[in-house]
Description:
This protein is α/β, with parallel strands linked by helices. The chain has one domain (about 5-190): Vaccinia Virus protein VP39 (Rossmann fold, 3-Layer(aba) Sandwich). Helix content is about 35%, strand content about 20%. A 7-stranded mixed sheet has the order 3-2-1-4-5-7-6, sandwiched between helices. β2, α4 and β3 (about 95-100) form a beta-alpha-beta unit.
Amino acid sequence: MLLNEDIWPGETPWYTMKFETDRDYMDRFYGAKQEAAGLVKPRRVVEIGVRCGYGGLALMRGAGWPGVGIYVGFDTLDEVGELGIEWARRILAPWSSTIFAPFDTQSVDDLLVEADFVHVDGSHEYPCPLHDLQLAARTTAKHILIDDMNMSGVQRSYREWTVPHKVVKEWDLHSKESGITQKQVLLELT
Ligand SMILES: C[S@@+](CC[C@H](N)C(=O)[O-])C[C@H]1O[C@@H](n2cnc3c(N)ncnc32)[C@H](O)[C@@H]1O
């Protein structure tokens, strides 16, 4: 779960409002990521799309390698800029963490990192998620968590992705407060 002190003091009005008025949903949302990592226990976690580091933090907490876990993140700085990424670096400092930013995953064919688990949560516009899924599959990772699978650009990318895999678990999340629906899917490459 995210603690109040994990939240960036410079957070945007939308996220601040969500954390204040829809905390139960936000806890379930990041709780799903923590649970996904808890199922797999990856030591090396890669994240495409870092923002302020909340998802990364949930993954690293779930993974359960205090002090020795490895986190590598990539972000263009589109959403929160340098200060948001600085916050991510700060909250992920208890692990061996590296964040490449600005870094556009769409401009590379290989992330050149070793990984056990990749969180695909960068641009959700087709065909970006397809490219990010291909990058994830080119690492050493056995597991991939896809965020926002309910969004059309992510769904279409997933449909066109041909790498053999099985679905380990899906999380369908709904906020009664705001009506938001969200789906996260944990995959295992086979
Ligand atoms: C949904 S947010 C990530 C949220 C974060 N994973 C979490 O769980 O808290 C998407 C992030 O992807 C980044 N992004 C968008 N396009 C990208 C790209 N082509 N390469 C790398 N990062 C990208 C944005 O800057 C933004 O910070």
